[in-house]
Amino acid sequence: METLSRESESASWLKELVELAREQLKWARVQGIVTARQVLSSSLRNDSEKLAYQFSDGRGSQEVAKVAGVSYATVTIYWKKWATLGVVEPMKVQGGTRYRRIFSLEDLGIEVPRMSVSETTRPAEEAATVLETENV
What we know:
- By secondary structure, the chain is mostly helical.
- It has a single domain, classed as Arc Repressor Mutant, subunit A, CATH 1.10.10.10.
- It contains five helices and two strands.
- It has helices at 2-43, 47-54, 61-68, 72-85, 124-135; strands at 88-93, 96-101.
- Strands 1-2 form a two-stranded antiparallel ribbon.
- Helix 2 (47-54) packs antiparallel against helix 3 and helix 3 packs across helix 4 (72-85).
- The longest helix has 42 residues, at 2-43.
- It is elongated and about 75 Å long.
- The model is unreliable at 120-136 (pLDDT under 50).
């Protein structure tokens, strides 16, 4: 009987701890989003940097550079800076390391500059979406 009481008490404490952890996680996410928005807003100073960040989704530095209108060396400098800030994560690929953004600028309420319609580095599905919104 005493064992059941202890187990019940332990289960109750565990349930309460889980609820507290969930509450903390909810607020940590909110604070993380606010912080990410502040960090990215202050570190992405121009349209080229915003485009380079948004399209750092596993693409190579030359492809990101073409979309952003900068050199591939500039993209690698951006990636190193953003990795230090914690807003991109490295991806090991054959021949080196690429970086993938952690946040979507759009999800954080940061406007993504429009690209020219002639960009050929976008996947077909993404290009169709951009073309539709540009023609509206």
